[in-house]
C-alpha cells in the first residue's frame, strides 16, 4: 500500500476542480434531459398543424419520448455495467444527436413518433448514467451539491427550450425547435469523450491500477485514495449482482423499493403538469395569448433560480428537513392554486395571486424534490446492486412521468380544476409524511456506510446515521 503523501493546497485545489469539471460534464446530460422536457410544449401546435394531427396523435407525439426513455433506462443498467459509465454516456450522446436530427427531418406523424422514441432512449440512458457516474466520482461531502448541479442543468435545459420555442414560434419553425438541441448534444459528446472512467466501475471490472490513477487525479491524496479503494474493494467482495441480489436479499429489496417510491413521488408532486401544460394553466387562470408564453418563461426562470438555492443548502441542511419543507410548500402552492382556479373568473389581483401560488409550488419543488430525489436515489443502493436499483428508480421516473402527462387534461375535463389540483396537493401532504417516516438522512455519510447500515437491516429511516 502506498504511503500517505502530504497534500499541498494547490494539489487539493486541482483535485477539487477536476472533480467538479468531471461532475459538471456529466451533469450536461441533465441539459439534454431538460431541453427535451421543455421543447415539445411550444412545438406541438405547429407540428399538429403541419401533419394535421388529432389530439390522440399529439398525445403520442408527446409521450413517445417518455416511452423511449423508459426503454433507455431499462437498457442502461446493463450497458453501464458491461460497457462502463463513460461508454454509456458516449452512446447516449450519439443517440441523442441522431434522434434530434431524426425528429427535425421527420416526414410523417409515425416517423416523428419513432424519432421521439429514439431520442427518449438517449435520454433514458443519460438520466440513468449521469447521476450514477457523478455519485461515484464525487467526494462524500460534495455529493449532494454535485448531483444537484445535474438538476440545475435540467432546469436550464427546460428554460432554454421554453425561450427558444417562444422565439422560433414567430417563424413557426418547429423543425428548428426540435433540431437545435443536436448542438448541445454534440458538445456534450465532445466533453464526455474526455471524462475518466468511474473508479468504482474500474474496480468492479478488476482494473485496479486504472482505478487508482483516476482516484488519484480526483482526490490528490494517497491516503484518501487507499481508504476509498479499500472500502470499495471490500464491498465488491460480496457476491451477487442486480436481479439475483434483488431476489435473494430483502435488505436490497428495501432500497430498491425506496428508490422506486421516491421517483414515483417526485413525479406525483405534479411538477410536469406544470412543465408540459403551463400555458394551459395560465389560460385557466384567465391569461390570454402572449401572456401565457411569458408566464411559462417565468416559471422556467424561477425553476432555475430556486435550484441554485438548493445547491447551496443540500450538503449543509441535509436531505430530510429540505424535503419536508419542500413538500409543505408544494402542498400550499398546489392547494391554493387549485382553489383559485375552481372559483371561475378571477379579478386581475387574484390572477396574479394564482400565478404567485404556482411559483410557490415551483420553488418548493426546485429547492427540494427536484434535486434531492436524484441525490437520494443514487445514494441508497448498495454497490453490487446499484446499477439495478438506479435503473429501477429511473425507469419509475419515466413511467410516472408518462402517467402524469397523459392523464392531466382528462383529469381537468372529468374532475375540474379544483379537484385535480386538490388531488396533487393532497399527494404532496402525504409525501411529507412519507419523508418523515421513511426517508434517511444521508448528508455527508459515505456510500459504504449507508450500504453497511442497509445490509445490517437497520430501518430505512436510519440507514444514513
Ligand atoms: C424531474 C423532471 C422535471 C424537472 C423539472 C426533474 O428532477 O425528474 O421530471 O421535469 O425536474 O425541473
Characteristic terms for this protein:
single chain; Growth Hormone, Chain: A; 465 residues; disordered N terminus; 19 helices; mainly alpha; 0% strand; binds beta-D-glucopyranose
Provide structural commentary.
The protein is mostly helical and 465 residues long. It has one domain (18-195, 238-462): Growth Hormone, Chain: A. It contains 19 helices and no strands. The protein has helices at residues 9-51, 55-82, 85-104, 109-137, 143-169, 174-179, 182-192, 199-204, 208-219, 222-236, 242-248, 250-268, 271-284, 289-317, 319-343, 348-367, 369-379, 386-438, 447-455. The longest helix is centred in the last third of the chain and has 53 residues, at 386-438. The two termini are 30 Å apart. Beta-D-glucopyranose binds next to helix 5, helix 13 and helix 18.
Give the helix/strand layout:
Layout: H1 9-51, H2 55-82, H3 85-104, H4 109-137, H5 143-169, H6 174-179, H7 182-192, H8 199-204, H9 208-219, H10 222-236, H11 242-248, H12 250-268, H13 271-284, H14 289-317, H15 319-343, H16 348-367, H17 369-379, H18 386-438, H19 447-455
Helix pairs in contact: 1-2, 1-4, 1-5, 1-7, 1-9, 2-3, 2-4, 2-18, 3-4, 3-7, 4-5, 4-18, 5-14, 5-17, 9-10, 11-12, 12-17, 12-18, 13-14, 13-18, 14-15, 14-16, 15-16, 15-18, 16-17
Bound molecules: beta-D-glucopyranose.
Residues 37, 151, 154-155, 158, 266, 271-272, 275, 303, 370, 397, 401 line the site of beta-D-glucopyranose.
Amino acid at each position: 500500500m502506498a504511503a500517505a503523501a502530504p497534500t499541498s493546497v494547490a494539489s487539493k485545489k486541482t483535485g477539487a476542480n477536476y472533480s467538479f469539471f468531471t461532475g459538471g460534464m456529466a451533469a450536461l446530460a441533465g441539459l439534454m434531459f431538460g431541453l427535451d422536457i421543455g421543447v415539445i410544449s411550444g412545438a406541438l401546435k405547429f407540428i399538429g398543424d403541419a401533419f394535421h394531427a388529432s389530439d390522440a396523435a399529439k398525445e403520442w407525439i408527446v409521450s413517445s419520448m417518455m416511452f423511449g426513455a423508459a426503454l433507455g433506462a431499462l437498457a442502461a443498467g446493463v450497458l453501464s455495467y458491461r460497457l462502463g459509465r463513460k461508454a454509456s454516456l458516449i452512446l447516449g450522446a450519439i443517440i441523442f444527436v441522431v434522434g434530434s436530427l431524426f425528429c427535425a427531418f421527420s416526414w410523417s406523424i409515425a416517423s416523428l413518433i419513432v424519432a421521439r422514441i429514439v431520442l427518449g432512449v438517449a435520454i433514458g440512458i443519460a438520466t440513468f448514467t449521469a447521476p450514477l457516474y457523478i455519485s461515484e466520482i464525487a467526494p462524500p461531502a460534495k455529493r449532494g451539491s454535485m448531483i444537484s448541479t445535474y438538476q440545475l442543468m435540467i432546469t436550464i435545459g427546460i428554460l432554454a427550450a421554453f425561450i427558444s420555442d417562444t422565439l422560433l414560434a414567430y417563424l413557426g419553425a418547429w423543425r428548428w425547435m426540435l433540431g437545435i438541441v443536436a448542438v448541445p448534444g454534440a458538445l456534450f459528446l465532445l466533453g464526455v469523450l474526455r471524462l475518466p472512467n468511474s473508479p468504482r466501475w474500474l474496480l468492479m471490472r478488476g482494473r485496479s491500477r486504472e482505478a487508482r490513477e483516476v482516484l488519484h487525479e480526483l482526490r490528490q491524496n494517497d491516503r484518501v485514495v487507499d481508504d476509498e479503494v479499500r472500502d470499495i474493494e471490500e464491498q465488491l467482495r460480496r457476491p451477487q449482482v442486480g436481479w439475483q441480489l434483488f431476489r435473494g436479499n430483502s435488505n436490497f429489496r428495501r432500497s430498491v423499493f425506496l428508490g422506486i417510491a421516491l421517483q414515483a413521488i417526485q413525479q406525483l408532486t405534479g411538477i410536469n403538469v406544470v412543465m408540459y401544460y403551463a400555458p394551459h394553466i395560465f389560460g385557466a387562470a384567465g391569461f390570454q395569448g402572449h401572456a401565457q408564453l411569458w408566464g411559462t418563461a417565468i416559471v422556467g426562470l424561477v425553476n432555475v433560480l430556486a435550484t441554485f438555492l438548493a445547491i447551496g443548502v443540500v450538503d449543509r441542511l441535509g436531505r430530510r428537513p429540505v424535503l419536508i419543507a419542500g413538500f409543505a410548500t408544494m402542498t400550499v402552492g398546489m392547494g391554493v392554486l387549485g382553489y383559485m382556479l375552481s372559483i371561475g373568473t378571477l379579478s386581475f389581483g387574484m390572477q396574479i395571486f394564482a400565478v404567485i401560488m404556482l411559483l410557490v409550488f415551483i420553488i418548493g419543488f426546485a429547492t427540494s424534490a427536484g434535486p434531492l430525489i436524484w441525490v437520494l436515489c443514487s445514494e441508497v443502493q448498495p454497490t453490487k446492486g446499484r446499477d439495478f436499483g438506479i435503473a429501477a428508480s429511473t425507469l419509475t421516473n419515466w413511467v410516472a412521468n408518462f402517467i402524469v402527462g397523459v392523464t392531466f387534461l382528462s383529469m381537468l375535463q372529468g374532475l375540474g380544476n379544483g379537484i385535480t389540483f386538490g388531488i396533487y396537493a393532497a399527494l404532496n401532504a402525504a409525501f411529507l409524511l412519507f419523508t418523515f417516516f421513511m426517508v434517511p438522512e444521508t448528508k455527508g455519510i459515505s456510500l459504504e456506510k449507508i450500504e453497511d447500515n442497509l445490509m445490517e437491516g437497520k430501518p430505512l429511516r436510519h440507514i444514513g446515521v
